[in-house]
Design a protein that fits this description.
Four Helix Bundle (Hemerythrin (Met), subunit A), seven-stranded mixed sheet, about 400 residues, alpha/beta, about 10% strand, Spore Coat Polysaccharide Biosynthesis Protein SpsA, Chain A, 2 domains
Length: about 400
């Protein structure tokens, strides 16, 4: 069954709609509509009193990403678009629910409304009875929207729809801990941004990610928000740096290789975090990840090549080739372990990014040969441990 959405955007803050307020690098309305779309809302409608210039750019970005949002400047126009819809998510002005709450309401029966207890901390929400307040999201049908349009015209249509649903004993869904944010102040926006950042945190992918790359990425997220950076920019830059580092290594420029490779990790993390926070897809993400791997592999071979040219020992190139082969084998072995369902890998296991950070202290000491040997042994130990693990699981 299709799912539509109606998002109210009447309230104005400092001369612009609150829906256009900046939040985590984009606007509030983009977060609202992207979350609704991710819950399955195929026909999002933005209900405004009049089309404000501040909404033009956010709507253009949504449409560029394939979200066909339409604008209705009256409840009558919205009713014409939604009258035949059996399920319509209703979102109050400047209300930002968590994705989990939207998904809970989206699969509920019609009509349903999300509620919070009538407590002092929920005073910003609209009271519907002596015990509850509306949490800002509901699931109604298009017929009710058409009836409200005929009854009240443009006079407080969202509240009228809510009252109508309450009178018809709509199912009430307690939000629990998923209390939505009402972005009516700078404090509320800061709280919403903090929740977005916290929700985007993922399990660490190894010790270098946990202790270095993820903390660097999170520390720089506010700077990315302030400059409205799109997720594709740091993701693309990380791939460019990795390829550039690999090429620099083949030319014997060891620090010009290692530094970009180290920077590529946090940048990739930033792109991933922004993608989760803004619910925006990074075009060609798999190709960019492949480019980063190729750049790191090329850097390893380049280091071995120049060590061999320095002292004439062909074993350095063999060691570099062994390193690349071990990491490829480790990748395959980890895939087998994951397929057999043995849970997460230990943090100490070698990753392409971790090898760069492990090489750093050797480079600072000028011991590049020792460093290449050490990270090859590290990759070998990781592969051996994972292979034994896979064989035990296979038995």
């Amino acid at each position: 069954m299709t799912l539509a959405a109606l998002v109210a955007a009447f309230d104005v803050e400092a001369g612009a709609p609150r829906a256009a307020l900046p939040l985590a690098g984009v606007t509030l309305v983009e977060h609202q509509i992207r979350r609704l779309a991710s819950a399955g809302a195929e026909r999002p409608i933005l209900l405004v009193e009049q089309m404000a210039p501040a909404l033009a750019a956010p709507l253009a970005r949504l449409r560029a990403d394939g979200i066909a949002v339409k604008v209705a400047t009256s409840i009558a126009a919205a009713a014409d678009l939604l009258a035949a819809e059996p399920r319509v998510l209703i979102l109050a002005d400047a209300c930002l629910p968590d994705r989990a709450l939207i998904e809970r309401i989206a699969i509920a029966g019609v009509p349903s409304i999300a509620v919070v207890l009538d407590l002092p901390e929920h005073a910003a929400f609209e009271r519907i009875d002596a015990e509850h307040r509306w949490a800002g999201i509901a699931l109604l049908d298009g017929r009710r929207i058409a009836e409200v349009a005929q009854m009240v015209g443009d006079w407080d249509p969202i509240s009228t729809m809510l009252r109508s649903a309450v009178q018809e004993t709509a199912a009430r869904i307690e939000v629990g801990r998923d209390v939505p944010v009402l972005a009516g102040s700078s404090e509320a926006l800061h709280a919403a941004e903090a929740r977005l950042v916290a929700a985007s945190r993922e399990a660490a992918r190894g010790w270098s990610d946990r202790f270095l790359e993820a903390p660097i990425a999170e520390a720089l997220l506010p700077q990315l928000f302030a400059r409205s950076i799109q997720p594709s920019l740091p993701a693309l830059l990380s791939a460019v740096l990795a390829i550039g580092g690999g090429l620099a290594a083949t030319g014997g420029y060891r620090w010009l290789a290692l530094v970009p490779l180290l920077l590529a990790g946090p940048l990739a993390r930033m792109g991933q975090r922004l993608s989760l926070i803004q619910a925006r897809r990074v075009p060609g993400a798999s190709w960019l990840a492949t480019a980063r791997l190729a750049g790191r592999g090329l850097a390893g071979l380049g280091l071995g090549w120049w060590l061999m040219r320095g002292d004439g020992q062909w074993g350095w190139l063999l060691t570099a080739g062994l390193l690349v082969g071990l990491m490829a084998a480790l990748f395959a072995a980890r895939g087998i372990v994951a397929w057999l369902g043995d849970g997460e890998d230990p943090e100490w296991l070698a990753t392409p990014a971790a090898l760069g950070w492990a090489l750093l202290p050797f480079g600072l000491a000028g011991l590049w040969g020792w460093g290449l040997g050490a990270i090859t042994a590290y990759a070998g130990a990781s592969f051996g441990w994972t292979l034994v693990r896979a064989l035990r699981l296979a038995r």
